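FW: tagging you since you asked about this chain on Friday. Here's the raw sequence from the shared folder, copied in full. Didn't touch anything.
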Amino acid sequence: MKSFKNTGLVVMILILITTLTASAQGGWVNPGTGVADVVAMNVGTSQAAVTAEYIDAAGNQAAIKTRSNLPVNATHEFLASASGLPDGWQGAMLLSSTENVATVATVKWAGGVDAGDDGDNGQYTGVSMGQRTVYCPALYQNTFLYSTIAVQNTGTADAHVQIAFRDRDGTAYGSNPVSKTIKPNAQTTLNLSTDPAYFAIASNDGSAVITSDQPVAAVVTSHWNGRSSTYNCPTTGNTKLYVPAQFRYTNGGSSFNDYILYSANVLMNLSSTTAANVTFHYIPRTTGGPTLDVPISIPPLSAKGLNTFNGGSVAASTFDVLGLGWDGTVVIDSNQPLVGINNTNWGPATGLRSATFAIVGPADGSQLVYLPHQRRVDPGGAWAEWSAAIVQNLSTTNTANVTLRYYDANGVEKLPLSQAIAPGAAFGFNTRNGGSWPTPNDFQQLGDAYSGGLKVTADQPIAVVSQYITAGTAKVTGAAYNGVVP
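HL: got it, structure written out here
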């Protein structure tokens, strides 16, 4: 997804637009059909006129939609169903605006071939500009779990793109690099269920480094049996990283069916010569809760994962010290630059679903963050949609004094909240149950049909992640995205 945030032009890439059936060979997960809706929040200082252009694979405009007079802090959704595009269309979006906007795409899957494949949701944000090098740290190529990579050219000339694949052990794909040519503003998608075997058969997962002679942006979608999620591929490595949301909830057993909610962090070492010595610091949300430090070594150009359910690259028992009901944050220290993503997974007890967001570095912290997509929909006591905002204080020494302001779709402030957050810690605000907020009924001020955006300010740098849950007639679904820094 591509997004330029300035007063003259805002550009955003969108990966899926109208109904699109995922292409997968026999035996692979098939999530069914997908649609992508885009919400734009005016984060400028005056009314905005916003135009959305839908761009096909050849770089041509396939449709155009506009919203004039969008108030400050208001949101507008460009719905796939209102685009006028035919079923099966796939492409990108170019947004232009007279004011700065923050943007989020929500990809919704439904109607999988098998009941267990029926898809989940995914979310990702527009980006301020593309880069010539992009990293996708977590990719999968297995019949029960596979990824697609959508790459958009955010430049003004044809992009000659090279994609280098490696498995988690750092072994390079024998036919590297995979080359693609992409027209300006257009996108192309690689589907790992139909493309060659990029990773060693014993691994079935890995990463990719994308390089280009034009700036590009990339988004990865992964499909499990019964789950799907999406994330923005990072562009910059860091030796310190932050994970605002981390969970370990289980009924005490060790099987998959015993887990309620858990987290997996996947980190890729960007050094081609030196192993990364990495320490994961697990910090609880509640004062006095259990803490944990986990040291690992990641070989050059390799990736490793830490999973609070099965351990990932370490023994599962490593996380027993956290107990049966733990949530908090993770701060990661490394002697080599890393990029990474977090997968949040809900186990069978609460309905299979997954949400993915990019792990952030110090430069991603800000004292002003926007979440353009927030929901609280509870018609007649039957919950349909809700959101959680998890705010992490990136300061290691100072308490962060944080204020959240929820706005409705017209830009009218509906609810202000203020909270002090300890150094390195996080605090969750859930529009359904309050999250960490001690008086959940305060969120009733949003009403039972709330759709809008959230502005978060602080006196210390913060990172914010949004989680979005839906509870329809078919299944409960989840998605997540990183907060937008204007």
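FW: The radius of gyration is 21 Å.
HL: agreed, and The first strand starts at residue 20 and ends at 21.
FW: great, closing this out.
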